[in-house]
Amino acid sequence: MVSMWDDGRLCYGGDYNPEQWPAATWREDVALMRRARINLVTVGVFAWSRLEPAPGRYDFGWLDEVLDLLHDGGIRVALATPTASPPPWFSLAHPDALPVTADGVRLHHGSRDTYCAAAPAYRAAARGIAATLAARYAHHPAVALWHVHNEYGTTCHCPHAEAAFRRWLVERHGDLDTLNAAWATSFWSQHYTDWAYVSTPRATQYLGNPGQLLDFRRFWSDTLLAAYVEQRDLLTAANPALPVTTNYVLGDWVPVDHARWAAEVDLVAVDHYPSAVDGGAEEQTALAADLARGWARHGRRRAATRRGAAPADGPAGWLLMESAASQIHTTGRSHTKEPGRMARHSLSHVARGSRGAMFFQWRAPAGGAERFHSALVPHTGPDTRVFRETVRLGEHLDRLAEVTAGEVTASVALAFDAASGWALRHPGMPSTLLDGHAELAAAHRALWRAGYGCDIVVPGDPLDRYRLLVLPAVYLADDDVAGWVRAHVEAGGHLLVSYLSGVADQHGRVHLGGYPGAYRDLLGLRVEEFHPLAADEQVLLSGGGTGRIWSETVHLCGAEPVGTYVGGVLDGRPAVTRHRTGDGTAWYLSTRPDDRTYRRLLTEVARTAGLAPVCPDAPPGVEAVRRAGPQGSWLFLLNHTDRPQRVPVTGVDLFTDTPADGTVVLPAGGVAVVREEPAPMASVTATPPMTDRTPPA
User: Fold this and answer.
1) Do 13 and 75 touch, CB atoms closer than 8 A?
2) Which residues form the Beta-galactosidase C-terminal domain (predicted)?
């Protein structure tokens, strides 16, 4: 069944801000959109001051005209609620709703995100504008999707937030004895005897309480979700047929557990802006897409469980809601994407399950804080390389609608837990270099370079379809998480656990008796001491590799050494171990290997598990992703090198409608999508000899 937002085509478009332009430009925009085959645009994200220029006084004439023009042009609209940027009058009328930093500084109006989501006045105003938009536009023929807010992630320490935090803690912990135990408040005389004494984790003399900081992150995730749900419910009540979403912003700073949110959106939508200029941008793109697909699957299961139903069959839907057309925003500058890179990034997302490619933004503005942000129509207009590539990408996407019937094939499960990442960032940890997202990225990068498809899972997700589970520094593990991991291995699954996984419980309290407490017996070892490394320090590993960030004193209790440390105080001690448990095997990694060593290790682990790369004969620098379903399979091939590449495959190239009789030739920087004939076997097969598949920088 085709939903309102999905008309059978892949979505293509992005943020459109007509309020920044005269009406004459609107007509030009629609004509250019049709030329580029744009079929979905997000409207109104930051338009609150234009929609409600004074309290209770609305101006919808311009929006009425824009929606009618878009509808007449065959372009659907994701209509946004503009609540990420309150208008000036609101901030003047409700200064108590402006955000307060951890050191007590109240911020002022003049940017976006100048609000506290725990402030009653803000929440009421947000509901008000959402309800007004719903009443007017819920049945407008152009509107295919509601887009609530923008990139939830703003936190606050104002009195409203503090009171809400206390209420949240009462609901979570029940009583002060439980709170005190969870936060270990006997340390440093922090024991609480009255809820009134509990505050948000403000700036303090030295190290804040790790349990308090972790719960504060969880509190903001739940508070922001509640703000979203209030708007979602108003919009859904106005027209239940219209789906509702919000766009996830990615980054370790974001206090949002996106996996938990996924059950509350009708469509997981993410914004992705890679920061690496070299081949790292392609690695980051693949990781972001795999994360989004994992959240979508997890959310669908959670929603089905809540309804008491079985999860729906077929691919879980998600959408790349924002990306940059022609720039990579890296440290200190904007790097101009090379020709063809916009298409490769977009199609990498589509290969991994996105229902299209969307951008911020349609037309580059002449003024404002983001006047030099990338756009599909740049300042120099449509007679440009960027717009020509925009038109070409639209032609490609129009040919790929059939791939949505296929689900991404993946043989490895890679675990990620938002709270574990938050806990690792506490300043009282043994190293300031610890970063849960970076550990996830390192493991994903190794698998990506080795050619293995992976699904990102949340602890507790079903693992029956995977032969290999990887835990990259998943720091927190209660009894349920430990049981989930153990059940996988006892059922014959294979496991790779990296350092600092399972070290603490769900509150961040360390499991006693030796590290990693939750998995010691399963791994057949005990870690006695940590040896954190300086930023410029390395340890040598047997086999010629190196380790960074971390090392450990490992004692074997049934495991066998696979690799050892060379030199220094750990000379000859195990660095990598393997422990056979029944039909399963559990590996342990006590340092962060260099990329080549990590790739070789994971290739060996995958081979032991009986897994094969997606396309074993793809040359180095060619990314391969397969989507498969009852009607067949489709192989995406993306050439990230500066020279032509030949890949063995048989089928039909969807971009050219020409047969690929055993081989497809990819031009430098080029892409092919092949409907395979016949459909290949599943990827659990014998693996050919290990090869170096690292893409060139």
Assistant:
1) yes
2) 621-676
